[in-house]
Amino acid sequence: MDTGWRQKVEEIVDRALAEDCAWGDVTTQALIPPDAAGKATIMAKSPGVLAGLDVARTVFERADHSLTFRALLSDGARLESGVGIAVVEGRVAGILRAERVALNFLQRLSGIATETGRYVEAVSGTGARIVDTRKTTPGLRFLEKYAIRAGGGHNHRVHLGDGILVKDNHLAALRARGVGLKEAVALARKNAPHTLKIEVEVTSVEEAVEAVEAGADIVMLDNMTVEDMRRAVGRVKGRVMLEASGGVALGNVRAIAETGVDLISVGALTHSVKALDISLEFENSIP
Fold this sequence. Notes:
Elements: H1 3-20, H2 26-31, E1 37-44, E2 48-49, H3 53-63, E3 68-71, E4 78-79, E5 84-91, H4 92-122, E6 129-131, H5 141-150, E7 164-166, H6 168-175, H7 181-191, E8 198-202, H8 205-214, E9 218-222, H9 226-236, E10 241-245, H10 253-257, E11 263-265, H11 268-271, E12 278-282
Parallel strand pairs: 6-11, 7-8, 8-9, 9-10, 10-11
Antiparallel strand pairs: 1-5, 1-12, 2-4, 3-5
């Protein structure tokens, strides 16, 4: 874990632990002797793709620095029900204090990686890449976009400063001032750093052609039918990178990929994904 990654993870973990242990773990304090030691295994209870091991490790370390955490797998590993993910040893009170927060991260991030893996597999062989969106959990985007990569996907913009994306509301605001799509692209090119690419969201084949002729680097085909996507690809393929967005689901992602688009962005990977079932189980005896 490099320094930058560690610092960001620790900041997120510390906030989560503070939220969960605001007034201490009163149940554990009432029941468990401070010197009680034990060993617990984190286990998958359903199949999927693992993500978030370093985050879980950090939770246990920050909750109780004396605990030892031993990973049995690596992020990106395929999980089956009943497979051990990691072993934690040390003070029982520390393990219990960290348990829920660690599992919350593991379940959420592994759920994202698992769903991403399904989409990546669905478009295998087409040349299209699955990418995420900014429809992430507030405060967790850094981790959720990591989980996308663990599942085999790719990241779109991490934040608003990551690239220029001229969306429908930008265009609507500009049109109210008499500025059209071509002029919008020219404004972006003039006022933004030359190192940033310009992407334009369009809703028709005609707008896609107009965006390309205006000098866009990437064109987002937003909520277009598969047939219209195919027509847009036929008109501008090779001149710009093409991204499909809106209404993407496992049932239609293969058909979208087969139109010839380069990228397919899927908001569902983060905004409505189901957490993977993962548990922590102590050994039968606790000295």
